[in-house]
Structures are given as structure tokens and as C-alpha cells.
Target: Zinc/manganese transport system ATP-binding protein
Amino acid sequence: MSSDPAVRCSDVTLSYRRHPAVHHLSGSFAAGSFTAIAGPNGAGKSTLLKGIVGLIRPDAGTIALEGVRRSDIAYLPQQSALDRGFPMRVVELAAMGLWRRFGPFRRMGGAAMRDVEAALETVGLSGFEDRSVGSLSGGQFQRALFARLLLQDSRLILLDEPFTAIDARTTEVLLDLVCRWHREGRTVIAVLHDFDLVREYIPQTLLLAREQVAWGPTETVLTEENLARSRRMQEAFEDDAELCKRPAA
Ligand code: ADP
Ligand code: MG
Model:
């Protein structure tokens, strides 16, 4: 699996207008690993994903990718960040996952269309092809976004709270798909809130509270002690949010 991507963070600090949201993070997401990012609200979880995708540049340290180009990462943003008002059909939204291979939708041939239909079937949206995305329920919209991710066929997949506010049946279908991606040797990183789900399905966890609290096998990371520490660290950061307590390396 040496061609699979790894993500290496070296003393990474990510900030908004010089207010650090992720502090001095070092560590690696190994090739083919499946990692949950957990932590309190405001811990920097979404910020770290944006840093990996390249939407935010580190103001210190580096995030190095191996085996994948930044532009080839499959990224699902947190749902609140998405605008569902755009006039687009389900089939067009899913087909966006193929743009890198085929160019704009109109130029796609029959084989590509069959791929799109198969992806929609995988996520349980057969028959929804011509529905406008604005008419979908939250769970159906998330399924359509997963069809797009599936078609992207990326070796590195980043998911930001993919199952938050999603019905149980949809969660089951999409979690199954994510576990399949992991079995296929893809590198998967997912921000998740449901510790029970993480303990059951996700082998590795990074617990974040602006800085790393713990990073490794899930059962050693998600201990009561570490969770309590993450809450204390997060509260301390909120008390003096503008200070960087450790010097940059
Ligand atoms: P999490 O995903 O762990 O809940 P975020 O990464 O979204 O946390 O946010 C980390 C910190 O950065 C929070 O204090 C948040 O208010 C701040 N933040 C997030 N996005 C922005 C933004 N676009 N501009 C300014 N500050 C932001
Ligand atoms: Mg977030």
C-alpha cells in the first residue's frame, strides 16, 4: 500500500486572522488508516480538515501529503456549511464527482452515466435522479453527496460530521460505505461526535482541543481521563483565546 496517501502534520498552527484554532499539531495519518477526529465544539476539528484540503494555509508548520494531490482529495464539509438552494438535480450533483475524469456533465458518455446511476443505487437514491436537490430531506441530500464522493474515487477521503442530524437508516447505509472505503485501502479521516460509533467502527482517533490531547488506537484515546482533559483544555483556551502559550518551534 506504499502508493496510498499519508498525511503528515509537523508543528502545524492554523489560524483565522491570527487567532489560532489549531496549535502546534504534529503527527501522521498513516496510509490506509481510518481515523476519527473527536473533541469539544470549537476544538479546531473542521479547521484541521480545511488545512489538509488546503482551504487554509498553516501560518506555522507544514501539512505534507504523500500519494495524493491536494486537488484529488474527496472532502465533505460540515453540512451547515453547504448551500442547498442551488438549482441542480440529484444526478448532476452526483456527477460532479466525475468532473476530474470527464469534464463537465454534458460531455459525459454512457459509461459515465452508468457509473453515476450505480453510485446513486449504492447510496439508496435510485429513482431520485431528476429530483432537485432542494427538495431532498437532510438524509437524502447527504446520500447524494456521498454518491459524489464515491464517484470521485479518491485515495484520501475527509468527512466533517457526516452523520450529524442524519436519520439512523441513512447513517447505517453511509457508514457501511465508509467502512468499505477503508477496506479498499483508502485513507479516511472523519470528524465524529458519536463516541459509541467511533469506538465500534473507527480504529484510530485524534482527540483535539485546539492542540492534540491524544492520538492513536481509539480504545487508548477515548478514555474518560482524556475526554475530561480535552474539556478542561478547551475551556482554558476559551478563557484566553488570543494567546499562543507555546512559542513556535
Ligand atoms: P470544531 O469543528 O472543532 O467545532 P472549528 O474548527 O470550526 O471547530 O473552529 C475552531 C475555532 O475557530 C473556533 O473558535 C471557531 O470560532 C473559529 N473559527 C472557525 N471558523 C472560523 C472563521 N471562518 N473565521 C473565524 N474564526 C473561525
Ligand atoms: Mg466543526
User: Anything to note?
Assistant: The chain has nine helices and nine strands. The longest helix spans residues 168-183. The longest strand covers residues 6-16.
